């Protein structure tokens, strides 16, 4: 069964500093990978996705993620964090037309931004 | 504007009182699903539907029902709500099953409290 682990429940970062959120997955084949962001009181917004090709993926809001097959990881990065980046971030593994075709989500990482 | 809508956004109810949360998408997507979000657990799929009149259980279907009579609508029904169904619920849709069509679009969420 597929699974996703986000080892960091909370991360606090200073505004302007760099940010890296970790995501490790377990999956039987090359997965589809996603990062979503949930701002307080809001729904989920897709930041970026990886299906195939270039393993460094650019997303919205200045985020990028790198797929590393050897490490089963898909870490999210941003070079300089803004106060508006305070939110909860979810990594998700997508299906390859398997039963349920569901996204499997990690538990989330809550990011706090210090002034 | 392409979107997934849910109603109500907030709901307080009592144990055993049947309720329905509606979900509608205007993107002509074939695939729709319901998730619940609980702290530390990320999002878990409740039910999904691959097309009209085609529905199936996700990871946590107990206590829920769904129907898909029209392509755009996918209501979630709690016949006899219990306090352990207090959660944040998300409806999602996506175009289809292959490649880029795997990207899911989420509604704004429905926060349910069962007393």
Describe this structure in words.
The complex is a heterodimer of chains A (115) and B (115). Chain A has 115 residues and is mainly β. The termini of chain A are far apart. Chain A has strands spanning 3-5, 10-14, 19-21, 24-26, 32-38, 44-50, 56-58, 64-68, 73-78, 87-94, 104-105, 109-114. In chain A, strands 2, 5, 6, 10, 11 and 12 form a 6-stranded mixed sheet that branches. Chain A has a 4-stranded antiparallel sheet with strand order 3-9-8-7, with no helix packed on it. Helices cover 0% and strands 50% of the residues of chain A. With 115 residues, chain B is mainly beta. Chain B is 0% helix and 50% strand. In chain B, strand 5 (42-51) and strand 6 form a beta hairpin. The radius of gyration of chain B is 13 Å and the shape is globular. In chain B, 37% of the residues are buried. Chains A and B meet through strand 5, strand 6 and strand 10 of A and strand 4, strand 5 and strand 10 of B.
Q: What is the beta-strand fraction of chain B?
A: over 45%
Instruction: Work out the oligomeric state of the chains in this entry.
Output: heterodimer
- Order of helices and strands of chain B, N to C? EEEEEEEEEEE
How large is the share of residues in beta strands of chain A? over 45%
Calculate the mean pLDDT score of chain B and round it: 91
Largest sheet of chain A: 6 strands, mixed
Major sheet characteristics of chain B: 7 strands, mixed
- Percentage of residues assigned to helices of chain B: under 10%
Counting H and I runs of at least 4 residues, what is the number of helices of chain B? 0
| Measured distance between first and last alpha carbons of chain A | 41 Å
Low-confidence stretches of chain A: none
Low-confidence stretches of chain B: none
Give me the count of strands of chain B. 11
Give the % helix of chain A. Answer: under 10%
